[in-house]
Amino acid sequence: MTETANIKQKSKISAIWIIPVIALLVGVWMLYQYQTNLGPTIYITMPQAEGIVAGKTEIKVRSVKIGQIDHVRLSDTQDSVIARAQIDKNYDNLLTEDAKIWVVKPRIDETGISGMSTLLSGVYLEFSPGESKKKKEKFELQDEPALIGKDVKGGRFKLLSYNAEVLEVSTGIFFKNYKIGQIETATFDWKNQAMKYGIFIKAPYENLITLNSIFWVNSGIEIDLSADGININTGSLSKLLKGGISV
């Protein structure tokens, strides 16, 4: 008696591989979604990384988070620090060439005390969008906060000073002891051997500035010595600390 054997061919793909394959496909899909939703990367050059922590330090605009520092390293020349940040793709239109960025931390100046909340939460970077349409990805960290927001109306002017006295950025501009503006930038002009100041005058006071306007440095304190005695007049706290420019 002859018996017939039934030969069954095994499946080429073992069931044991199904779970790893599914996991791989899910991982690829998640990576694709991550790359799709990833926003632009920017690089911020700064003198040092004090208080800047990768994976923690946030970048904000008007207290709204738009990105975060994800990597910090020394520059190739080792004389500065380069921080890499990932920006939310919904805010990539803010990355213009005239945008400014600075560290928000506790500060004490003539305007008062600011940034105290960072004592608990840690420092963060404030980003001030500009008005240019041209984009860029590399920024320089500013030493001081941006003084004038783009939504503040007024006029900008240039002043040349051949006086030996150097005035600081944020020094006030006064008209009849009323503050109408302030110094935005201060640089030395080698060609003219003079200090060049960029000033901002708030609206509507920019109309006070004409070709015949005269500016002079005001120390913030006036002493009048006469037969009646000594008369001392002082200006605002801002004037006493930094002086000012009168027009």
Automatic annotation (TrEMBL):
Q: Please report the stretch or stretches of sequence annotated as the Mce/MlaD domain.
A: 39-130
Keyword annotations: Cell inner membrane, Cell membrane, Membrane, Transmembrane, Transmembrane helix
Which is an annotated Pfam family here? MlaD
> What's the chief localization of this chain?
membrane
**Record flagged with keyword GTP-binding:** no
Segments spanning the bilayer are 12-32
Q: Does the keyword Transmembrane helix apply?
A: yes
What is the annotated localization of this protein? Cell inner membrane
Q: Which GO terms describe its cellular component?
A: plasma membrane
Q: What is this protein called?
A: Paraquat-inducible protein B
List the source organism.
Pseudoalteromonas translucida KMM 520
